[in-house]
Amino acid sequence: MQAEPRTAESRDDERERAPFPHKHLLGIEGLTRRHVETILDTAEAMRGISDRRIKKVQTLRGRMVVNAFFENSTRTRISFEVAEKRLSADSVNIQVSGSAMAKGETLLDTLRNIEAMRPDMVVLRHWCSGAPHFLAHHLQSNVINAGDGNHEHPTQALLDAITIRRAKGRLDGLDVAICGDIAHSRVARSNAHLLRLFGSRVRVSGPGTMMPRGAAEALGVRVCRSLAEAVEGVDVVMMLRIQKERMGADMYPSDREYARQFGLTREVLRHAKRDAIVMHPGPMNRGLEIAPDVADGDRSVILDQVENGVAIRMAVLYLLSGASEVPAE
Amino acid sequence: MPNPYVDKQVVMDRRAIVRALRRIAQEVIERNSGLEGVALVGIRTRGVDIAKRLRDVLEKDEGTAPPLGELDITLYRDDAPSRGLPEVRPTTMPFDVEGKAIVLVDDVLYTGRTVRAAIDALMDFGRPRSIQLAVLVDRGHRELPIAADYVGRVVQTRADESVRVRIDARDGEERVVLRAPGER
Amino acid sequence: MRIEMRNGRLIDPARGMDEPRDLFLADGRIAADAPPGRLERSLRAERTIDAKGKWVVPGLVDMHVHLREPGEEYKETIETGLRAAAAGGFAAVASMPNTQPPNDARSVTEHVLRRAAAVRGARCLPIAAITIGREGKHLTEFGELLEAGAVGFSDDGTCVADAGLFRRALEYARSFDTLILQHAQEPRLTVGALAHEGPRATRLGLAGWPSVAEELIVARDLLLAAYTDARLHIQHVSSAGTVDLLRAAKAKGVRVTAEVTPHHLWLTDEAIETYDTNAKVNPPLREEHDRGALREALRDGTIDCIATDHAPHSVLEKVIEFDRAAFGVVGLETALPLGLALVRDRVLTPLRLIETMSTAPARALRVPGGRLAVGDPADVTIVDPERPFRIDPSSFVSMGRNTPFGGYEVPGRAVATVVGGDIVFELA
Predict the structure, then answer these.
(1) Which domains are present in chain C?
(2) What's the CA gap between C354 and C306, in Å, rounded?
């Protein structure tokens, strides 16, 4: 073999290699700032594809992606599916409903079924923290964590990051408030890890019942007692979805109380910087954690988040595909 | 380990590059009877550099600059990357491709695979009236039935040689060199 | 068999003895002991063991073991469990009642003992359930269970959370001066709990199991034990807070004993960083300061014993999502090697190690053994403190392979276990 590649030699050996030495995307924890930047830059390049007449490239042609969802999540699943189609991958969806779990079907059973399909990548959403780590340990394929229990949701944090970067022009030196049910939020964890990589300062707030022990130490955040304190002077306000079943578990007394004490209203938002943006991972409970006029107001970038999701997932699929070499023609 | 490549011969110097671009500009204007409906699209990275230079020459000659797009063909390539995964960079197409006469610009034409990928990528933006190809150097060894409409210089090469275009902005010099494995 | 053990280092905590001494066993009892070479000439041994360079210690006693039989024989049987115990140097193990059916009736206790009698291995000391079906509602028949051979009472795996019921259990146990062993876990504070509640669990997104869930029950039970003057034993202590409570109670003369597991002495919640189900235990592995407090408490006597909480599981329970995996690790064949590592690391003296693994648990359970004076049962373990090896779960006699200690380098192990004068285990 020659030292210089035969094809497009003046291009190939001058080009930057995408610095992404990972086989799986299990969480933001473990990525470096540079890895995150690579994903975001790649996603920027991917964004344009959705604007073309033909919204599809051949990059992952012949690659098989299994979307294994053990938890309902229409948004995330569709976002991944669109990303896979844009890259011409063949995708198969496995939806494991609650009833199959009740019958005792374990992740290991499903895993064997998945393995028989010889997938190149598996996108896993699971209600157990650490489930993607388990899968990555037992499967040959690349594993992408599409949300595991209360642990991480890396693609959500990445799409939030690209949304912030587009709105603020940077990810470093920002003050960000993440508010709501921190204890049960994988979005909060992934976002805290990511923003910390860039030296942004993260504050969290929420009802005491939903503030996990050791949050400050675990996530490198400042814990604020009130929403107003958390929002004071920040560049970004990120509201988390409150799950109504938490009320049954006495984590908050009533929707009305929650909305009044912990919901983001225009009055509370006044504490933030004038140009602060408002984010929400969706789906929103309008009038509960976020007032409708704030959700739909001019500070809201919630719809941008959704749009950026596809580009981020395309970028992740592309970058992980490098781990198992693209078949030569 | 094969020997590292070294510069063997300068095939175009600064003045030769300027002359070639002027000639290509004239040919583009003649063939398209002016610049009405003409757009340039450079193939990243050095094709974009050449396209920008060509645009400047065209602007000087005709008093108007054609729009310029920048095309990243990474996602359209048909070859295995030799190591790692190439970085994907943005494609910008600040004009509607539909009905345009597109002059695709690259620095070196070799196997034709890059151009094939670029044509595919362009077609995904719409249906141009025509696609023409301009290259600074044609070094032969085509693997696909592709030919350039505008060529700065044809250079005879062996398969184990390579051709490098170097420009001021990127390399601090202005020349095209033929490179080959050095002697041990 | 008449056995002579010569040239060993005899460690007998009951007598505070740690010196070179020969031992003679006959008719299932310690028949004689004397300085090296000074045993009476009339004593004729059928077997002479040269214990030079080795420790001769009272047979180890593990007061917390799950033998799984009856009901879960795919995880462990009485036979494999008692043989694994012998291989680990244990001459006797207390078997917990959370079997299927649970050991809450004379018939089950007798069944367990009958099965155990057929095994050449460690003795089995059945612990019976405190409540029928381990349901925390009604007391079992303590008197009849003791007659059948039970040596104490516990609902292990489940806490007796009802304060009124637990008071009655302590009071009723006093009638027989028997031991109540509590699995201290406030159930309402541990709903769905998976890992020690603290920064790591928060980061890993695992439902928290707070230390206070243990401490609340321990504090309550210490008050009740003092109030009823009953004998209370706290199982698998995991937190520094519990240590403080125990220390204060002991200072006041409360009749309480406590145990700690090797995994709580050796590991912290760092072991679950990769969601390793082999490190998922009940109570959970906690933080560094807890581990330090447990070691100190074991050293100073606040905690009396090392007990393994040997909990064998199959791959069905362990090769699975962390949330769904069963709690527990196996410990019978790693406890002594890890104990020797504590001696190596100067956490314990040899005398204290043997006290915590033999003398103290035998005393707490009021069973024979744990001592090597003439007339005591011939339950003896020979330990080679300098026989380093790497822990390899695939070589376990136990059917359980679930240990976080695979690959650990340990300094030594048991090389022979004698139960009632019978050599039930001997390393080639």
Answers:
(1) 3-56+377-426 (2.30.40.10), 59-365 (3.20.20.140)
(2) 10
Q: Which of C199, C204, C319 sits opposite A217 (nearest CB)?
A: C199
ipTM for the whole complex: 0.90
Which CATH code, of 3.10.100.10, 3.20.20.70, 3.30.160.620, 3.40.50.2020, is assigned to B5-181? 3.40.50.2020
Select the residue of A16, A53, A329 nearest B78 (Cβ to Cβ): A329
Mutate to test the interface with B, among A11, A13, A59 (most CBs of B within 10 A): A11
Query: Which of A128, A133, A212 lies at the smallest CB-CB distance from C202?
Result: A212
Distance from CA of B52 to the nearest CA of A (A): 18
- Measured between beta carbons, the chain A residues lying within 8 angstroms of B159 are 6
Neighbors of chain B with 3 or more C-beta pairs under 8 Å = A
| Set A22, A23, A33, A75: catalytic member | A75
Whether there are 3 or more C-beta pairs closer than 8 Å between A and C is: yes
Q: Are C204 and A215 within 8 A, CB to CB?
A: no
Planar angle of CA B127, B131, B136, nearest 5 degrees: 150
Q: Helices (DSSP H) in C232-276: which residue ranges? A: 240-251, 262-266
Residues of chain A with pLDDT under 50: 1-14, 324-329
* Strand pairing class (C3-6; C47-50): parallel
Facing residues of A67 across strands? A93, A123
Question: 3-state DSSP call for residue C400?
Answer: coil
Do A192 and C202 touch, CB atoms closer than 8 A?
no
**Cβ–Cβ contacts within 10 Å for residue B175, how many?**
17
Tokens matching residue A138: 């037992």
Q: Where are the domains of chain B?
A: 5-181
- pTM, rounded to two decimals: 0.89
Instruction: List the beta bridge partners of residue C55.
Output: C9, C383
State how far the Cα of C29 lies from the Cα of C15, in Å rounded to an integer.
17
Per-residue pLDDT of C355-410, as tens digits, reads 999 999 999 999 999 999 999 999 999 999 999 999 999 999 999 999 999 999 99
pLDDT at A286: 94
- Residue C412: which residues within 8 A CB-CB, separation 6 or more? C337, C340, C383, C384, C385, C386, C387, C388
Q: What is the pLDDT of residue A102?
A: 55
Number of H helices, E strands in chain A: 15, 9
CA C184 to CA C216: how far, in whole Å?
8
